[in-house]
């Protein structure tokens, strides 16, 4: 309950709506991850603020009222201004962010239905289907745009590594592990000294630090092992105590566990120096799994390595690698396709004449 109170202090509008506060406490008591609760609180708080401004009772709001909220999100100027890297929804929030903002609103109305306070959910579910009527069962409020993640080219990656070479050993080993083991930001920053098994060059990714709450063991390469050994010697000059692997070296937080936000700032600084503004803490994970797909790893093996709950998420990297399409093209059209391409690259036509 204490966590919910803190969130109500952060977003006072939650405290002004009894049902919203109840809903938030339910999710908190169910033990959802703090970052999930925080995201739910923010999304619902933004919706409630729009309801207050428009004089709408959120408990009895209808679909048109939720649409007004969506419209506000799609036209809102970003607080990040020039720091926005990609904006794919027009002028407001990115499409993925719009979807995230609607999730807590939909769940809130599910709760009201379960409590007998409503008969239907104004947010609804389903995927966007072009051509369907507005009230169609399968159509969502916001078209879902599915994009493949961005990964750097080989030249861009080498350029980034040139910048990283000048970074402290802690930052270099963190980037190496993030790539080698396809780690999420929270998994990387939450590593502890007893999660390491240098003899077998493996890491234990604890369940409580993962997105799917499933523990896994992942390997890292020999070069990363050498870098890690150097960092451990350096870490001993900061603290010999067991505990968080990566420690802050700033004057303010010297010896304290490195925060997620500090690591994000490090990567942002490195990315801008390398002139790769789209590079983020998740890019190394995308790049690693795409490389594994290109190397021919089986779908289930990649999913297990990445800690995916299902192979549906893993298919993104199969698509990004182009492996399946390349294999099908090679098997199914090898002869006729090669012949046609060969005719394109020859200086003349099959008759020997040259186009003028």
From TrEMBL:
Residue span, Tyr recombinase domain: 147-330
Family annotation (InterPro entries): CB, DNA_brk_join_enz, Integrase-like_cat_sf, Integrase_catalytic, Integrase_recombinase_N, Tyrosine_recombinase_XerCD
Gene3D superfamilies xref list: 1.10.150.130, Intergrase catalytic core (1.10.443.10)
Keywords tagged on the record: DNA recombination, DNA-binding
Core-binding (CB) domain span: 14-113
Source organism, top-level taxon: Bacteria
CDD domains, A to Z: DNA_BRE_C
A Pfam family it matches: Phage_integrase
PROSITE patterns registered for this protein in UniProt: CB (PS51900), TYR_RECOMBINASE (PS51898)
Name listed for the protein in its UniProt record: Site-specific integrase
Organism whose genome encodes this protein: Streptomyces vastus
Lineage, broadest ranks: Bacteria, Bacillati, Actinomycetota, Actinomycetes, Kitasatosporales
